[in-house]
Amino acid sequence: MCGIIGYTGPLQAKDVLLNGLSQLEYRGYDSAGIAYFGPETDVHVVKTTGKVAQLRELCKSVREESHCGIGHTRWATHGGVTVENAHPHQAGKVTLIHNGIIENYHQLTVDFQLEGKLISQTDSEVAARVLDAIYDGDPLASIRRLIPLLEGSYGFCILFSDHPGEIYAVRNVSPLVAAYTHSGSIIASDLTALIPYTKKYAVVPENKIVRLTPYRMEFYEMDGQPARPEFLEVNWDTDAAMKNGFPHFMLKEIHEQPEALKNTILPRLSRGLPDFGEDKIPDALFARCSQIRIVACGTAMHAGMVARAVMEPLLRIPVLVSVASEFRYEDPLVSEETLTIVISQSGETIDTLAALRLAKELGSRVLSVVNVKGSTIARESDFVLYTHAGPEIAVASTKAYSVQLAALYMIACRMALVRGKMTEEEGAAFMKDLLDVIPAMEEMLRQSEEIKNIVRPLVDKPDAFFIGRNLDYAFSLEGALKLKEISYIHADAYAAGELKHGTIALIADQVPVIALATQDRVFSKMISNVREVKARGAYVILITKNGAEAAADLADVRIRIPDLHDRFTVFPIAVVLQLIAYYASLLKGLDVDQPRNLAKSVTVE
Ligand code: M6R
User: Which regions span the lipid bilayer (predicted)?
Assistant: First the structure.
């Protein structure tokens, strides 16, 4: 969850670290700190609670030159948000930063008699003290002895005060990428901090040790032998990770959706049909399974809910969706005949990764839909379909959701073709409908101002309800999540037909209800449900297709989306629901991109 960075080279380390931390801040923003070698080879630490901007202020008083250091932006797990708990942590000759959780920290505290010595309440400081206790002047050997003692996940960057100019790093589960450039060596938990310096980077392999010096980057196996990492090249540049004139990353990313969809769909079209040849995904994968399990978290799981509603009726095989953190404990019915589809923007979500590993253990083949190239989930999957959304920085996921949907729709279409559930003609029509969502999304983006005005009456309300039937229900789930995570308005989604079984008790005068009625098959039933909430005083924002005039007088406000086939309305609806959440947060004066208590990638269970 935390952002970590290390730099050694000719540039001012303080500047490289602070700029990197600003790029990584979306990974955690409770507190931040840096450590650097001073001119006397001593290691100095500056840290504070709050955001990177506060750390930057504090660092203004740092006058001395430094060319080697490490930096951290924290999402609190062990221990509250205090300066003591902020990273880096120091113990003797060791200064370290950590992303992850050391699960056996308590046992280590006992074994190494650390009680009474710890300054913070963090598991990370325990790791620093254990490393200092076993340190014998040889960093590589000492890290090798440390690793078997640790249980849990970690990405560490470490300075040893008697090895100036050098940074050591090691990881298990938690991500680390590193690069050697003409401006020195750099390592970080995320690519966004590296791209100002290079496009070529190495994914630090698990349980290998990296030594960075200003002149080289070396990887070692645990037995001390040199190791070879995998080098990758990123296909986006610094601009993609900047706001480019938008006030927030979230708004920029909402606007990037049409382009992201084109990038995800067009390279995979062959004679109008989906073709995964370049992705090396064989048709046999789709032909032989007898059920599909979709596993993901948060927004990615909601994309899975939509995919389920499209796939099962089309493919006529069971398609089940599980929240990844539950999947592991529900003793899932998974076998060699199951195709598991894992969805993740970051490719690092720990619950999703654990579910993937379990599915593989149970014999299932795993196809992942991932945005971040070379991420752990991508590497551990049997097959990967990369979405090409570019970097998503805002904590609230937007463009990742729509490209996940596009990728899943393409999988549905390819599978239907392979399994004889669609003719080529039907497949081409399906793909044409998918491409038609792009102008439909653009049309909704042009209505941003109207949507902003529609949102105004919502912002002082404590609750909001999203209702819909069938696919509209799956879309509602995402609308509610988006609204609550960035506006802090309590929002929930309900299958509209289920309301009268309890929830309608909460509908009173002026309670906002966002009603989605874009599914022709259940339109009239949905309108009856809208009448029910209206009769109880709800303030109704009704979203329908352009042509649906039936309920013209029913709602307080009406939003019309282009007239698409039912299956495809999710794309323009996603834009509407994202903009509702965005403007609610903005009008409340909240931190849109970095909402409280959250972090972009959730690498703890
Ligand atoms: O990186 P992932 O797609 O695996 O992340 C999954 C969720 O943590 C993520 O979608 C989260 O729910 C977002 N904050 C929602 O906007």
Answer: 568-587
